[in-house]
Design a protein that fits this description.
Elements (H helix, E strand, L loop, with lengths): L4 E3 L8 H16 L7 E4 L1 H10 L6 H16 L12 E7 L9 E5 L5 H9 L2 H18 L5 H15 L9 H19 L7 H15 L3 H10 L7 E7 L10 E8 L6 E9 L3 H6 L5 E2 L1 H6 L1 H18 L3 E8 L2 E9 L4 H13 L5 H6 L3 H7 L3 E2 L9 E2 L1 E4 L2 E7 L2 H9 L4 E5 L7 H6 L2 E4 L7 H9 L2 E4 L5 E3 L4 E3 L5 E3 L3 E5 L4 E4 L4 E2 L2 H8 L11 H15 L3 E5 L3 H9 L5 E5 L9 H9 L3 H25 L4 E5 L12 H13 L6 H13 L11 H6 L3 H18 L5 E6 L5 H22 L7 E5 L2 H5 L1 H4 L5 E4 L1 H9 L3 H14 L16 H15 L4 E4 L7 H10 L3 E4 L4 H21 L1
């Protein structure tokens, strides 16, 4: 028989698949002897069974009842008993942290009778009614489906009537009145009554948490964070402890290190006389955790001891929730804390220095995505005026956008291409769509542990919280700064998540310290602990030591090649020759296209030759001693001609004025019409163009060969490779290779040198992948062009479909991410694997790389490592990202083989 419920004393941190992250960590803290209120976990397996059938799994309630009886026996009181009730919390807990995305119900067990008993036994009537109104509010919205804003409006109205700002100033009679208001609201909205049976409350609460797994905000968060939809959530049922019992009670959230910077120390927020949800929701501004030392030194010292225990046990930054009930400290949750990219690198380096983790573990704990964030520009401090306001630097970075005051507006404007900053008093889980759409989040309430801060850090969004100097009026759609400045919706502001400041207008940007280091080796100059630049340098050095994949760059100019080499590129994997035909040289291409005779075409090609040769000399010099893969002309020739409409308008305008149209325009229009294709990306381009236009291949190969010869004469060590694009059949490559060898042989004889320029091809058509064994007979190397291979495998035109329906596909779960961002492993990846296997079966020493955009995508780099490629190639700015991920991929492979 399947078991669905585990006591906290029965689990451990290695059971997250079954008990969820929260449940497994509660069990682990219990095992460590920390003060954890007793409870039990309903497994993810029970959730999946419920979601599959729509009904409670057989035997579940019997197991829950048995564990509840154990709780009641240990507490010496029963759930909801009238004189001294046992009260419970019901919280979600998926395998992967999803802060605020699913449901929590506190104070299960209170009803019209037990609230009186709680008031008597606690000696605090206000506390009892405050707990009851929280239960009715949470249960009404979470379980019974009443819009939560209806409860918030009732609460706000009561505070206005009593003339108070905060909930804590409402009296016991006020709260008793509010409970009745809430219960009437539930009956009015649902036709049902708030249940007085504690057992019914518990049962319905557990099932409601299950159902919240498929709630809109939970599904949206999973798509954003690439969390699988079929995992389900566990449910944790725990004895309530109360932080809202007066001045000697309270709740807080703590981090063992700063989640924004990674620096050592005690960080967090504390809220006296409050339950934990108040801290996370940000509805009241908290005090720094250090203030707890003055308020309750014994609890503060106990918390520090427990935090050290947890950090050393988990060997990582720990995020901890705690409650103090009348001077007694209780640990309610721990998890490995979300952190910014900067904090991830600094923390990994410091933990390695402290001997808690190895250098390889430090590398495994950072990511290429995080490194990319650190390479983003920052605000120019010298160009900033006085800030409108300062707040808590919750998630670093620099963002500029127009102010919006609700999630729906943020989504609408962002979809129209506008960059926006979402401004709220505090965010709630319902604001998730707007947070995803926004460049930055700014709140007037909350701290580093508020919902806005935690979610923004997890998504890598810029965030400033608790900017108390701002008065945010969401109804009037504006905020007012302390100096009286009024900022209306649509106004541009700049948000500095690193400094915790917001500025009027658009502040100029400068390169990040990490970019400066990569460009010229300058460090960040940090004075406390490990500097982020030092941490990045260490991670990259370790990655370079362990990685098998080489990392090259896509570069078309000497300037790009120089930058790529500084960033650690080990060559150029893609040099696009078509980019050398733009600008003033476009006229020479036009002459070649319009040539009426072989002689005219030869003259145009002869004029292009020295220009191409000079480009190649510069790139080969910048990459001296390293391979440079030069792709022959790829796009259709019509891309080098003027726009059809532009030409037609010019000709028609001249004719309308009675003038003779320009003869060159007429000739160009004729060429454009002649070359028109319904689907040019599948037409006359790539190898087909080289085989159809006489002399084109010879001109480009001659420019390459002569550039190599010139560099050899100058004492260089050029390593040019010639790549033929869009090959679909080995016979195409055989014809081109014969032409390449003929031209190189001519140059060799004339210069008296040996030219060794390997000839290979791009694998960017499904047919090429499926016939790779034959193609390898002629190719000395393969390079996967995954952009085109994705287009031709899926039947997508990237230029058209991303705007047309990709957003719908992402919303409906057809994609978890765009196949142009992360490689489609099932389809395109399978073609890659086939081509690698068959190509090397023919030619065992076949060099294989990738030069599409996927070469710089962290997830795709791991696939290419596993597939056995020799190198990845990407844009210069992605080279450090690829280096890091190539190292992490090698470590994953080692760990996998060790586990086997």
């Amino acid at each position: 028989m399947v078991r669905y419920v585990y006591d906290f004393t029965e689990g451990g941190r290695d059971m997250a698949d079954l008990l969820g992250g929260k449940g497994s960590n509660l069990a682990e803290m219990t095992r460590l002897g920390l003060p954890v209120p007793p409870g039990f976990t309903v497994t993810t397996e029970a959730c999946r069974a419920f979601l599959e059938t729509g009904s409670e799994p057989e035997g579940l309630w019997e197991e829950v009842s048995a564990h509840l009886a154990g709780l009641e026996a240990s507490a010496g009181r029963s759930l909801g008993q009238p004189d001294d009730p046992l009260l419970l919390s019901v919280r979600s807990g998926a395998k992967f942290s999803m802060p605020g995305m699913m449901e929590t119900i506190l104070d299960i067990g209170l009803n019209d009778d037990s609230v009186l008993g709680l008031a008597k036994v606690s000696g605090n009537e206000r506390f009892a009614w405050d707990s009851y109104r929280r239960l009715v509010q949470m249960f009404g919205s979470t379980v019974m489906g009443v819009d939560s804003s209806r409860f918030e409006r009732s609460l706000a109205l009561l505070k206005d009537l009593r003339g108070v700002q905060d909930d804590v100033h409402l009296t016991a009679s006020d709260l008793a009145e509010l409970v009745e208001t809430y219960k009437n609201l539930i009956h009015l909205e649902t036709g049902d009554h708030f249940p007085q049976s504690p057992a019914e409350q518990l049962r319905r609460a557990i099932l409601a948490v299950f159902e919240s797994w498929n709630g809109e905000r939970a599904r949206l968060y999973r798509r954003r964070e690439h969390i699988a939809d079929d995992l389900g959530t566990a449910v944790n049922v725990q004895r309530m402890v109360f932080g809202n019992l007066g001045a000697d009670s309270g709740s807080g959230v703590a981090f063992t290190r700063d989640p924004a910077t990674g620096r050592s120390g005690l960080y967090g927020d504390y809220l006296p006389d409050a339950q934990g949800e108040d801290v996370v929701a940000g509805i009241r501004n908290t005090v720094p955790l250090a203030e707890l030392k003055r308020l309750d030194a014994r609890s503060y010292d106990g918390l520090r001891t427990h935090m050290r225990t947890l950090e050393r046990h988990y060997r990582d930054l720990c995020d901890i929730e705690f409650t103090i009930e009348r001077g007694t400290l209780w640990m309610l949750q721990t998890r490995v804390g979300k952190r910014t990219a900067e904090a991830a690198f600094v923390l990994a380096a410091e933990l390695a220095d402290e001997g808690l983790i190895t250098p390889d573990e430090a590398l495994a704990r950072v990511s290429g995505e995080g490194l990319a964030r650190l390479m983003f520009p920052r605000f120019d401090a010298s160009a900033t005026d006085t800030a409108l306001a300062h707040g808590v630097p919750a998630s670093p970075g620099a963002a500029v956008g127009t102010v919006v005051f609700d999630s729906a507006q943020a989504v609408r404007r962002a979809a129209a291409g506008e960059k926006v900053v979402l401004v709220r008093q505090e965010t709630t889980p319902d604001d998730l769509p707007g947070m995803i759409a926004a460049q930055a989040v700014l709140t007037s309430r909350g701290g580093k542990t508020s919902h806005a801060a935690v979610v923004a850090r997890g998504m890598g969004k810029v965030c400033v919280c608790g900017a108390e100097e701002l008065t945010v009026d969401t109804e009037a759609r504006r905020f007012t700064a302390a100096d009286g400045t009024v900022v209306e919706e649509g106004t541009v502001v700049s948000v500095d998540g690193s400094a915790g400041a917001v500025y009027a207008g658009s502040v100029p940007l400068v390169d990040s310290a990490v970019i400066r280091y990569l460009e010229d080796g300058r460090g960040g100059g940090g004075s406390q602990g490990v500097d982020v630049v030092d941490a990045v340098a260490r991670a990259l050095a370790r990655a370079d030591t362990v990685r098998r994949l080489e990392v090259r760059a896509n570069a078309d100019t000497p300037e790009d090649a120089v930058r790529a080499r500084r960033f650690g590129a080990q060559g150029i994997g893609l040099c696009r020759t078509e980019h050398m035909f733009l600008g003033d040289r476009r006229k020479l291409v036009e002459q070649m296209i319009l040539a009426g005779t072989d002689a005219e075409r030869d003259r145009a090609l002869a004029d292009l030759l020295p220009l191409q040769r000079r480009d190649f000399v510069g790139i080969l010099e910048a990459m001296d001693g390293l391979p440079v893969t030069i792709r022959l002309l790829d796009p259709p020739l019509h891309e080098f001609l003027p726009d059809h409409t532009e030409l037609a308008v010019r000709i028609a305008t001249a004719q309308a004025r009675g003038e003779e149209p320009d003869a060159h325009d007429v000739a160009l229009l004729g060429a454009v019409n002649r070359m028109h294709e319904e689907n040019p990306m599948l037409g006359l381009r790539g190898v087909r163009l080289g085989l159809v236009v006489p002399g084109l291949i010879a001109m480009q190969v001659r420019a390459i060969g002569e550039a190599v010869t010139e560099r050899l004469s100058a004492g260089g060590a050029p390593q040019a490779e010639i790549m033929v694009p869009l090959v679909g059949d080995v016979r195409e490559l055989r014809l081109v290779r014969a032409e390449v060898q003929r031209v190189l042989a001519e140059i060799s004889r004339a210069a008296g040198v040996v030219l060794d320029c390997p000839v290979g091809t791009m694998i960017e058509l499904p047919r090429a992948a499926l016939t790779a064994g034959r193609i390898a007979e002629e190719a000395e190397f393969f390079s996967f062009g995954t952009n085109d291979l994705t287009q031709t495998t899926w039947g997508f035109s990237r230029d058209d479909v991303e705007a047309e329906f990709f957003s719908a596909y992402l919303d409906k779960g057809v994609f978890s991410t765009s196949p142009f961002e992360a490689l489609d492993r099932e389809g395109v990846g399978r073609l890659v694997n086939i081509a690698v296997a068959e190509g090397r079966a023919t030619r065992p020493d076949l060099k294989i790389g990738v030069c599409g955009e996927h070469g710089g995508d962290p997830d795709s780099v791991h696939f290419f490592h596993t597939a056995g490629l020799d190198y990845v190639s990407c844009s210069p700015f992605r080279v450090p990202v690829a280096r890091l991920e190539a190292g992490r991929a090698a470590l994953e492979e080692t760990e996998g083989s060790d586990s086997r």
